[in-house]
Amino acid sequence: MPIFEFECRECGTPFEELLRSSTFINEVRCPECGSPQVRKKVSSFASKISGGSGFSLGSSTSSCATGGT
After folding, report:
1. Does this model's pTM top 0.70?
2. 17, 3 in Cβ contact below 8 A?
3. What's the distance, CA 29 to chain centroid?
């Protein structure tokens, strides 16, 4: 389930909402004043890469030997 960022047009409160899909955006209400007048903010994508998998991003080298024997 994605987390969407919103801002209330009535009181200006920024908040996040966990929704099943973007089709539920019209049901979002401000947690401070209860207003349905909210604006979805543009969010940046975040991801976490953990070590230990042997996979790295941005590497153009191969671990395979290219020479023949």
Report:
1. no
2. yes
3. 20
CA 62 – CA 66 distance, rounded (Å): 9
Output the CA torsion sign for 54, 51, 58, 5: positive
Let me know: does 5 contact 43? Beta carbons within 8 Å: yes
Task: Measure the N-to-C terminal CA separation of the chain; round to a whole number of Å.
Answer: 52
- Which tokens go with 62? 């191969």
Read off the tokens for 33. Answer: 């004043």
d(CA 38, CA 29): 7
Give the neighbor-by-neighbor strand order of the sheet with 38-40: 14-18, 3-8, 38-40
What percent of the chain is predicted at pLDDT more than 90?
41
